[in-house]
């Protein structure tokens, strides 16, 4: 079986995988990082989004072997060691951008990448289009869009 | 710490774990020694199941066991039960064919479970399932209601002639026919309510864990109502004593009705775990969700309104066919009857109503309650019909509603279809919605759109629904085989902190916050000293769970009753400690006080005295400060309101853009406005999804064509607008809280508002009606061919 070495949330892991093993399976089943979710089997819902080398990726659509040598950040790796939330997490909480919480990890990871990629600012329409790859069935997106707009200045002020 | 009681938008207690990836959903649970199950499902809509050869599969790597329907039948495992019984027009009971956990003799829909493979890993189980040799003889399928009701149609169940589950009615047909015969005019509309697939973001999952030592079974499952699952599974399916069965519904990633029902996989993993003496886990792939989660809606109706010359509604006559799918799911028969036909008065004083409903078996996935359950179907029918009356008579759409509303001073109001509304003010919700939507400024916006080459329309829906389910005696008389009360246990700890054990279940609604706010309000305990426990039959008293917008109206009322008992007992203890008469003790803000004095004792002092009863009226009072209350509501609750959709259509593409959406709802007492707004926004999104995008499509052979998220159009962020949501509340008069419920109003009120807006936008094309979903293709065809897609 192939061996894969990857850094997840700053910690290096070497795991044995099958050729067909998906990155999300490594995260959830081998590393017990169950914050990353699987909501579909056609790469539509985005519940599985993580950052691979800083860029958002659907971990259900990436083979573990493809992730060899990369640095992966999951929802568990966002908050500071003292528990301080990332501004995106904080704004999701503040603006009630989550209900059942299942899409939330992928939604937050996608939103962070979206804001990172648009330092000059994002219109509401750009935020909505930027969320094309993430489904939420609870919120109607209204508060998610609000949270992302609110997180933008916080994230870029920090940077 | 700011204000945290009723009316405060307290940020949610549950968010911290969800935002940090520390939620505990069923698929996150792994038990020591756990095996994995893969459910092999029928790929045939309808076929004789001649046999299953498991030999090759059983030799595959990692396989521990394979079970089929025949194995379960040998042990006399029962079928999945139905919780409601409906009667036919002639008084005979509905047809109730068995629903085997795994197919025996025949498969009846694509997705029907045929066998389960249990292996060391999920992949091994799935690989081995490929090696099962299943011998089918295909049968012609009844893929939809029209096909199922046709002469000579294939029968889904051999002993159910004509595929009719029941043929039910409400109202006096002769009286209504008499009104129609004399009416000034009759307005008729034929309409369908599109079949939907709920698609909670978390796919269903179940872990069965049999303890060899104690003989206890634990089932972790994605359920909205763990006690209901325990009862149904123990008593009807596996025949186990309930004391040996624990059901845990941990964090659940959305339900919308689809996780109410007792599903085959719950029974399979629980039963199989004892067989293989190891825990067994099953998690649905999304494709399985599409073909095994109960679907929603799927009605075909004819509606007629009799009116006088002023447009006054004189009578309503409705005939509906409702698809049950291949088997009766837990709630299915009540949805198109008692949650639908009883709502047909809507917000109007229509004096006589008759409705007949034919429930039909087809070779499709079972259909059951999905967010709104019956009320969206009733609302779509009424609010489309009212617009058709306006269209046919030329009376203004707003005016005709105003003329026919039940007036605010007419409550309690007895409708002709069994329900008695306790409160409401439809003129006010309409007036405020018209203001909030700038109804009067619309023609300017229409003209502006026209100058940009776009077709703009506005539509209104003034809806009513019944929720807070439900008064047990009433639903019992209607055929429910369960009481629909709710329970709460309030435990005040010796140091004054509080744990609430509720029979309701939160799968996104934020009960851990809202229910705690009730304790803040009543007992004056701060938020951070209150814990809400739900979802584990080993911890909570026997409750009925969460659906039908019931958790606050019914579960919250149970909490109020339990807290009343806490306060009453606390007063007795306080009277003893402060040497006063019980009648002189007042309780407010966490403090017991002797009236007219400055003598006080805090709740903490009282609870400490209750658990360390050295100085205590021990002769008259038991120690401890913990109370339970079961609350059975006196009536349903009746939220209502007005939704206004404004759409803009691009005639080049037929694409509908929802430009504005305004909702003014009456949900009774609001505990947490932030959460209520979130519930309404989410409901409206599902309603817009139904109106514009979503449809479960079967081909004529019974194959599910919309069987994945690539084929079934889920609303995405760029399909939806920001929502302008407000409430104008009248209080529920029969529960202690005054709350009515807010979970479903969004999905109930919004679909006809959207379709009414589209018909308005297309008025130059003489579009009187359009069925859902109003896809761009349908609209493009109308605009470009002048064809009414009807």
How many E-type strands of chain A? 5
Assign the CATH class of the domain at 434-463 and 638-790 in chain B.
Alpha Beta
Strand arrangement across the biggest beta sheet of chain A: 2-1-5-3-4
Strand order of the largest sheet of chain B: 3-5-1-12-9-10-11
Broad shape of chain A? globular
Please estimate the helix content of chain A. 25-40%
Radius of gyration of chain B: 27 Å
Query: What percentage of the residues of chain B does DSSP assign to strands (E)?
Result: 15-25%
Characterize the overall form of chain B: globular
CATH architecture field of the domain at 434-463 and 638-790 in chain B = 2-Layer Sandwich
The chain pair with the largest interface is: A-B, 55 and 56 residues
Q: What's the helix count of chain A?
A: 5
Structural class of chain B: alpha+beta
What is the number of E strands of chain B? 28
Helix content of chain B: 25-40%
Rounded to an integer in angstroms, the radius of gyration calculated over CA atoms of chain A is: 15 Å
Give me the oligomer status. heterodimer
Descriptive overview:
The complex is a heterodimer of chains A (159) and B (790). With 159 residues, chain A is of the alpha+beta class. Chain A folds into two domains: 3-77, Beta-grasp domain (Ubiquitin-like (UB roll), Roll); 87-158, DNA polymerase, domain 1 (Orthogonal Bundle), CATH 1.10.150. Chain A has helices spanning 23-30, 87-94, 104-116, 124-130, 142-158, and strands spanning 3-8, 11-16, 49-52, 55-58, 71-73. In chain A, a hairpin with a 2-residue loop joins strand 1 (3-8) and strand 2 (11-16). In chain B, a hairpin with a 5-residue loop joins strand 19 (486-492) and strand 20 (498-502). In chain B, helix 18 (673-692) crosses helix 19 (745-761). Chains A and B meet through helix 2, helix 3, helix 4 and helix 5 of A and helix 1 and helix 18 of B.
């Amino acid at each position: 079986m192939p061996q894969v070495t990857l850094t997840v949330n700053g910690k290096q892991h070497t795991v044995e995988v099958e050729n067909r093993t998906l990155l999300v399976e490594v995260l959830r089943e081998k590393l017990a990082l169950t914050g990353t979710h699987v909501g579909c089997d056609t790469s539509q819902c985005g519940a599985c989004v993580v950052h691979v080398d800083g860029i958002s990726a659907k971990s259900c659509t990436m083979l573990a072997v493809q992730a060899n040598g990369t640095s992966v950040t999951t929802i568990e790796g966002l908050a500071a060691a003292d528990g301080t939330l990332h501004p995106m997490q904080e704004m999701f909480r503040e603006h009630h951008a989550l209900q059942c919480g299942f899409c939330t990890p992928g939604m937050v990871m996608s939103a962070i990448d979206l804001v990172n990629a648009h330092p000059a600012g994002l219109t509401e329409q750009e935020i909505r289009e930027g969320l094309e790859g993430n489904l939420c069935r609870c919120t109607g997106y209204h508060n998610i869009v609000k949270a992302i707009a609110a997180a933008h200045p916080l994230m870029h002020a920090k940077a | 710490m700011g204000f945290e009681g009723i009316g405060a938008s307290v940020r949610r207690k549950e968010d911290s774990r969800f935002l940090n990836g520390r939620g505990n959903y069923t698929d996150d649970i792994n038990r020591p020694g756990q095996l994995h199950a893969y459910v092999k499902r029928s790929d045939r809509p309808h076929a004789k199941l001649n046999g299953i050869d498991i030999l090759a599969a059983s030799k595959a790597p990692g396989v521990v066991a394979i079970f089929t329907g025949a194995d379960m039948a040998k042990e006399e495992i029962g079928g999945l039960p139905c919780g409601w019984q409906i009667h036919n027009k002639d008084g005979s009971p509905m047809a109730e064919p068995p629903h085997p956990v795994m197919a025996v003799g025949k498969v009846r829909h694509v997705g029907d479970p045929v066998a389960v493979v249990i292996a060391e890993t999920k992949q091994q189980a799935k690989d081995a399932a490929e090696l099962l040799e299943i011998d089918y003889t295909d049968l012609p399928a009844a893929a939809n209601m029209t096909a199922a009701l046709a002469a000579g149609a294939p029968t889904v169940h051999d002993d159910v002639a004509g595929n009719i589950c029941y043929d039910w009615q409400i109202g006096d047909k002769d009286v209504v026919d008499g009104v129609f015969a004399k009416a000034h005019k009759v307005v008729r509309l034929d309409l369908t309510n599109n079949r939907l697939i709920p698609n909670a973001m978390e796919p269903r999952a179940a872990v069965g864990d049999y303890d060899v030592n104690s003989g206890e079974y634990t089932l972790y499952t994605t359920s909205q109502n763990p006690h209901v699952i325990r009862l149904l599974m123990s008593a009807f399916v596996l025949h186990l004593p309930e004391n040996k069965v624990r059901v845990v519904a941990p964090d659940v990633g959305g339900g919308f009705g689809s996780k109410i029902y007792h599903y085959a996989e719950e029974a399979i993993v629980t039963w199989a775990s004892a067989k293989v003496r190891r825990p067994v886990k099953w998690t649905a792939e999304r494709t399985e969700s599409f073909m095994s989660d109960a679907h929603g809606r799927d009605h075909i109706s004819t509606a007629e309104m009799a009116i006088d010359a002023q447009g006054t509604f004189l009578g309503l006559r409705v005939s509906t066919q409702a698809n049950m799918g291949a088997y009766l799911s837990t709630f299915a028969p009540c949805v198109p009857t008692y949650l639908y036909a009883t709502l047909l008065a809507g917000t109007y004083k229509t004096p006589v109503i008759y409705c007949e409903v034919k429930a039909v078996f087809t070779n499709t996935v079972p259909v059951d309650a999905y967010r709104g359950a019956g009320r969206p179907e009733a609302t779509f029918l009424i609010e489309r019909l009212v617009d058709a009356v306006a269209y046919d008579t030329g009376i203004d759409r707003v005016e005709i509603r105003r003329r026919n509303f039940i007036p605010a001073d007419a409550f309690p109001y007895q409708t002709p279809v069994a329900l008695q509304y306790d409160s409401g003010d439809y003129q006010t919700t309409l007036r405020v919605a018209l203001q909030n939507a700038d109804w009067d400024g619309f023609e300017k916006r229409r003209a502006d759109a026209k100058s940009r080459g776009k077709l703009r329309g506005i539509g209104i829906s003034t809806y009513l629904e019944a929720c807070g389910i439900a008064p047990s005696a009433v639903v019992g008389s209607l055929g429910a085989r369960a009481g629909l009360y709710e329970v709460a246990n309030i435990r005040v700890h010796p140091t004054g902190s509080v744990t609430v054990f509720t029979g309701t279940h939160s799968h996104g609604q934020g009960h851990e916050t809202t229910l705690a706010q009730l304790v803040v309000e009543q007992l004056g305990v701060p938020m951070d000293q209150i814990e809400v426990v739900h979802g584990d039959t080993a911890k909570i008293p026997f409750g009925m769970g969460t659906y039908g917008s019931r958790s606050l109206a019914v579960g919250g009322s149970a909490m109020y009753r339990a807290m009343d008992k806490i306060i009453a007992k606390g007063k007795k203890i306080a009277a003893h400690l402060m040497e006063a008469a019980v009648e002189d003790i007042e309780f407010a803000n966490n403090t017991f006080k002797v009236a007219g004095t400055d003598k006080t004792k805090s709740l903490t002092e009282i609870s400490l005295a209750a658990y360390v009863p050295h100085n205590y009226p021990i002769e008259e009072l038991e120690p401890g400060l913990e109370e339970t209350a079961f609350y059975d509501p006196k009536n349903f609750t009746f939220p209502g309101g007005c939704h206004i959709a404004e759409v803009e259509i691009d005639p080049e593409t037929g694409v509908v853009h929802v430009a504005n959406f305004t909702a003014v709802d009456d949900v009774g007492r609001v505990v947490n406005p932030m959460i209520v707004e979130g519930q309404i926004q989410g409901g409206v999104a599902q309603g817009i999804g139904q109106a514009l995008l979503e449809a479960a499509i079967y081909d004529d052979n019974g194959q599910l064509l919309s069987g994945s998220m690539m084929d079934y159009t889920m609303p995405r962020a760029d399909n939806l607008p920001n929502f302008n949501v407000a409430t104008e509340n009248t209080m529920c008069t029969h529960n202690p809280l005054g709350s009515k419920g807010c979970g479903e109003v969004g999905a109930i009120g919004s679909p006809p508002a959207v379709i009414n807006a589209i018909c308005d936008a297309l008025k130059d094309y003489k579009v009187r009606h359009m069925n859902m979903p109003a896809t761009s293709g349908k609209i493009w065809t109308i605009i470009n061919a002048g064809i009414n897609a009807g």
